[in-house]
Amino acid sequence: MPDHIKVSENILSFNDEIAKINRKLLDEYKLFSINIMASPGAGKTSAILKTFEQITGKFKLGMVDGDLASSIDADKANQSGISAVQINTGGGCHLDAKMVNDALKKLPLGALDALVVENVGNLVCPANFDLGTDKNILIASIPEGDDKPYKYPGIYRGVDALIINKVDLLPYIEFDLNYFKKGVEILNPGLVTFPISCVSGEGIADWVKWFTEHIFAKKGT
Amino acid sequence: MPDHIKVSENILSFNDEIAKINRKLLDEYKLFSINIMASPGAGKTSAILKTFEQITGKFKLGMVDGDLASSIDADKANQSGISAVQINTGGGCHLDAKMVNDALKKLPLGALDALVVENVGNLVCPANFDLGTDKNILIASIPEGDDKPYKYPGIYRGVDALIINKVDLLPYIEFDLNYFKKGVEILNPGLVTFPISCVSGEGIADWVKWFTEHIFAKKGT
After folding, report:
1. Does the CB of A69 have a partner CB in chain B at under 8 Å?
2. Is B1 within 8 Å of chain A by CB?
3. Which domains occur in chain B, in start order?
């Protein structure tokens, strides 16, 4: 077996072990957790902040924010009242379970109702790394174009819910929603999908309903 | 030294060797070549097709098109009269010099005036792999947001020209051009920048002028 394949397998198996530990920890706290993946600029942070706006006073949110560099997103989240921890991957193209495990140690897990992990903006690498969260969520955005499921099948295949962001831009962009949805349906039949706009607020209520129902379900209430 | 660092170093050094071979081959043919990198959906293919529209009849263009899966982009290019070869990385998050070397063998290099390599849509991984092209070009797009240079410094630091695509969407999106440009200037002082729209055609002439000047310079005419 070539060296690089052996090393990749070792890395993935190590990652899965730590992901199990994260999952067990989050289960002990009955904390519903999601791993949000998307292209750079699809609106991960905006969607998280918009979601938090809707649940403020009802639920306390923790956030693990992955970026190559900078703490722009975690700063925004902390200013909004989310308990956020920044992870800088220093060039790494995705979060892994160990990074999330380190971040969990810095969060007041007992005081939280849900945890959002914002992955590095990338449609390729994050798809291969289980972080130990309950659900994997993909955010697509209208300006990215309607062909993305066909070009990045791996990430569309592996997620539990899909948010289609920036639908307010549909009048200004050529985007064939049927072609897009057909691609998604081939890869991930019946995938629950939320078209939203963080600008107009369209669709946010449906997404937040799904999110809060899962928080309650995990708490067992 | 840990195994994965050793393997990474070996991979990068092997890549650089093949990149040198590609560079030598393209130099022999006096073929100006660019490696276009961008986020998924920033408009790499649209910009290439728009460029080709402007130079049709004057120059013959070859294209190497990298994607995880599908041949959507290469098909579009071939239909437009570009000699295009598709590379499917099968999950790999970037092109490498060996993939480009294999593709070059399938192109009629002697009949071409310029070569465009369209990398996998990704702001992280492609930055580390020299393909042997003359210039590395980054396409940013307005909907991605003005904070991208701060979040993905590696790729902004390593390029020779920057295209800012989809400027026709500026009226509909909050995007602080000064904040964006300030970030670029810190990472890559004096970087030549082309704001363009493939929809309205704005800015295309300046970009095409730069591109064709480089074709002539490489030919030595």
Report:
1. yes
2. no
3. 3-219 (3.40.50.300)
